[in-house]
């Protein structure tokens, strides 16, 4: 009974409070100015944090060795915080890994990609960064981070393990490039996770095709930029090179018969998006003739018909296939299937 009465009193009090608001503030203008000042102070603080982080990371990213140094400092200050001896033991155990050129290149590439993220702003958005992003992707490819990682063969008793050749990318370097920036030790140590972009930005520095899709193709498509087909050519060329270089011959066959046609259709679809519907129709027809048995042919035919009749809706089947970072100068300009070898070996 007592609990019931207390509950009744509480409800009655709540209803009274809801019915009786406070009088309007007499100093409205002063209150608004104070709130504006708080907002301005917070924005200034964020700009200062961003500026400090950019300066720190730019300095470290000047060379592979200084990049690794910053990474190790961040690792010591995060994962091994209050466990410095464990950090020293880990560092000693992995000294050959850390000293390898591919691992140091990975640390530098991570910082360069991180810079692209924290340098984003309303004025310097993803579209403005397209050139910088393509340059980064070119570095990622030229340093062989699209190659299969080097894995040392199992050693027999009495034999010393062979070191990884300096021109090969190690598994540890690939693993480092596969880490999400949000969980990257440097980001955690500098407390800059909130400064990373939320859209048009791949979360991983080593995700070549994801970066091309999110950071490059998406902003170009939003602007109906005529460079978009060239980026598709870049994607197709790089994906084809990867397939041909694989030690798995079935991978090259699968690419030629399944992935390549979808990539080619994606290029056609985006041609229509940026205002080249007639060119898109022509290349769709070539694609349909080249792959008459492809399961997606009915969709391609419907898309071509819609363009011919000027229908506004165009299916985008297959446009989410992997993207590339190689220069577009030698990329195929039409959807005729390029030759794909099935017995190629991995390139260095």
Tally of strands: 0
Number of H/I helices: 14
Tell me the structural class.
mainly alpha
Shape: flat
Instruction: Give the topology string: H per helix, E per strand.
Output: HHHHHHHHHHHHHH
- Cα-atom radius of gyration: 27 Å
Q: Mind describing the biggest β-sheet?
A: none
Distance between the termini: 83 Å
Low-pLDDT ranges: 317-348
Helix fraction by DSSP (H/I, runs of at least 4): 55-70%
Mean pLDDT equals 84
Strand content: under 5%
How do the strands and helices of this protein lay out in sequence?
Elements: H1 2-19, H2 28-60, H3 64-77, H4 84-93, H5 95-99, H6 101-118, H7 130-142, H8 171-177, H9 185-190, H10 208-222, H11 228-245, H12 249-273, H13 277-290, H14 297-308
Helix pairs in contact: 2-6, 3-6, 6-7, 6-8, 7-10, 10-11, 11-12, 12-13, 13-14
List keywords for this structure.
single chain, 348 residues, mainly alpha, 14 helices, flat, disordered C terminus
Report on the structure:
The chain has 348 residues and is mainly alpha-helical. 60% of the residues lie in helices and 0% in strands. Helix 6 (101-118) packs antiparallel against helix 7 and helix 10 runs antiparallel to helix 11 (228-245). The termini are far apart.
Task: Describe the structure in brief.
It is built from 14 helices and no strands. By secondary structure, the chain is an all-alpha fold.
